[in-house]
Amino acid sequence: MSDVAVPPVVIEAQGLNLTFTTNDGPVHALKDINLSIHKGEFVSFIGPSGCGKTTFLRTIADLEQPTGGTLSVNGMSASEARKARAYGYVFQAAGLYPWRTIEGNVRLPLEIMGFSKADQAERAKRVLELVELSGFEKKFPWQLSGGMQQRASIARALAFDADILLMDEPFGALDEIVRDRLNEELLKLWARTQKTIGFVTHSIPEAVYLSTKIVVMSPRPGRITDIIDSPLPKERPLEIRDSPEFIAIAHRVREGLRAGYEEAGE
């Protein structure tokens, strides 16, 4: 028997369903989702467009309300977790306010939450250092590249030091070279902060490279077709993508995606 303690579960879905009501009839976005995410895991959600991966992330963030089943975040309901500021959320677009400096954008949620000016300044300095944007505090978003803007968006999500970081395709609009670099930086950031990360992506290599656990989802109604616990080491140079282990995991992800399409009759 192993003496290694299993980290606590921080996000748990049981029999989770979500059906949207539309003029064309009900849309079953999520169906019978059962998933446990442990503290400190890096969990990627991958699947075709419309499979519910972003919808599931949004239910964790209390931006969508499930129509069946249960969901707990840090032992609370999603609504309670939102009020307790249990997570930071990074959207597909950086969403920075063009009239505020980079530091001003990072400080914005802290201002809203009523942190003191001194605390705001200290936190902004710390998270901008974490994402390697020291020296860019007084720049405006339009003066930064797309990759730097997305790093500023990550800094803003980290500023109030939530345990959970939810990321919805944050690098999807970036070119491959920038994306590779940000993938490397994100792994280093995760190692330094020990956050629990939920990450939505369309990219099989990105999911395999980043994750300790990969959740493969099917076309609508969004179901989980496979959950893969990655055997890769936590420290991962980009070259690991050429290894037999990496290629084998990528193949299993592809098989899970294919199975989902076949079940959906596509």
TrEMBL record:
Record Pfam families: ABC_tran (PF00005)
Coiled coil: none
Highest taxon of source: Bacteria
Keyword Nucleotide-binding: yes
Residue stretches making up the ABC transporter domain: 13-240
Keywords per UniProt: ATP-binding, Nucleotide-binding, Transport
A GO molecular function held by the record: ATP binding
Classification via InterPro entries: AAA+_ATPase, ABC_transporter-like_ATP-bd, ABC_transporter-like_CS, ABC_transporter_ATP-bind, P-loop_NTPase
Similarity section: Belongs to the ABC transporter superfamily.
Protein name, entry field: ABC transporter ATP-binding protein
Organism: Pararhodobacter zhoushanensis
